[in-house]
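Aim 2, interim progress: modelling of the glutamic acid-bound target.
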Amino acid sequence: MQEVRVRFAPSPTGTLHIGGARTALFNLLFARHNQGKLILRLEDTDMERSTLESAQGIIEGLNWLGIDWDEGPDVGGSYGPYRQSERLGIYQQYAKQLLDSGNAYYCYCSPEDIALEREEAKNNKTNYRHKCPYKNKNSDAIEAEIDGNPVLRFKMPTDGAVIINDLVRGSVEFRNDLQDDIIILKSDGWPTYNFAVVVDDHCMNITHVIRAEEHLSNTPKQVHIYEALGWSLPYFAHVSMILAPDRSKLSKRHGATSVQEFRNQGYLPQALVNYLALLGWSPGDDMDILSLSKMISLFDLNNVSKSAAIYDIEKLTWMNGNYITELDIEDLLSIIEVEARDKQFLSDDNRDYFAKVISLVRSRVKTIDELFASIDYFFISPSTYDEKGVEKYFYKNNGLEKLQIVASLMKISPFKTEKIEDAFRSKADEMGYKAAELIHPTRLALSGRTNTPGLFEIMELLGPQVCRERIKLAINFLK
Ligand code: GLU
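Predicted structure of the complex, ligand included:
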């Protein structure tokens, strides 16, 4: 069987959007499932809009997500170069082949001529198709006559239809009379997308083109170019759009849309990958949390839906919380290490302590931002106390007396969770209180908060010295 070769072909004109990331991911899953190869190709022929920063950002985003490729601009391979801007000679060679075989022609019409033609078609309510006076003329003769830089156009068939057997969308038919003689080389000699993509997919031996639905309407044009060059077609699979919950196009106003933004907001790559995989692909009932290797083993284009996928931040956030809780603690620590050092929670000599803190709080948060926002009191004394908590647990119900009782318990030894809990409960019994009446003011004194993980676990971690000091501070605050 022929080796499966797929590609992800972003245009480096912006950030890596989650739609692009999902396309890359589906290509990865398909390639790995079939023991094939994934190629990264940068489609950077739009010189005005393409930037190096964008290319770098896309590569970084893919790396962060754990999407890796076998051939590409950075890793090389035997079908390079993998940047379209470095392939001009190849495009020109095949453009010449189309010209020589009578499948293409130079068009000298000015943009103004074309605009007039379009206007006329619009007024007549007919389909626009360029009627070029140069189409059937000998190009040498024209060149002698005319000054100017022509574009090269492809002669699209005018009747019949193309049927595309899309692996996601099924059979889709496109009438040829609705196509235009598209430009394949611009007047500066550079290829247009529809031409370059065909040349590259052929020259790079791509077997399956898995890409966004927006390119479905380009496919019949590409099919005609394949045929004119005598090349066999790859399989096509057009993956549906990702829409916002209100079914409008996903945009900035729906919150984060780029991989970098999710990263900045404290999402884990594993969670984002897991979530994106399920946007349009259904591996089966109750299949929610899936490792990359599980996704690879289950992935099948037959289970990719042709209806639009609806983006749901709540599900992603739920999934993220799940990953934060379930990830191997060492993996989680390595993901958050740099930020934890920046925020001065982690240093060379508190790694064990830091790991215990993270283990204790992680099941209570949904993002890394929330994680960091919930651990300050493990590292410094609270600088303020929650206002409502102060009212409820300090002022009402005689908080001062209760903290004084708790202060008398600080000699518990060993200062371990169970021991501390026993001491609290028996002291409360002895004094005729409910244990909660001692727990709430103590929690507030130690953390400044009313909502934390279990108090006794926190106390063990903080240690008797710190607990004693903080209870004393709270007592002074109340006096
Ligand atoms: N450069 C195109 C894009 O970013 C790729 C289209 C394709 O995969 O054929 O949309």
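Residues 9-11, 43, 197, 211, 215 surround glutamic acid (CB under 6 Å). The mean pLDDT is 94.
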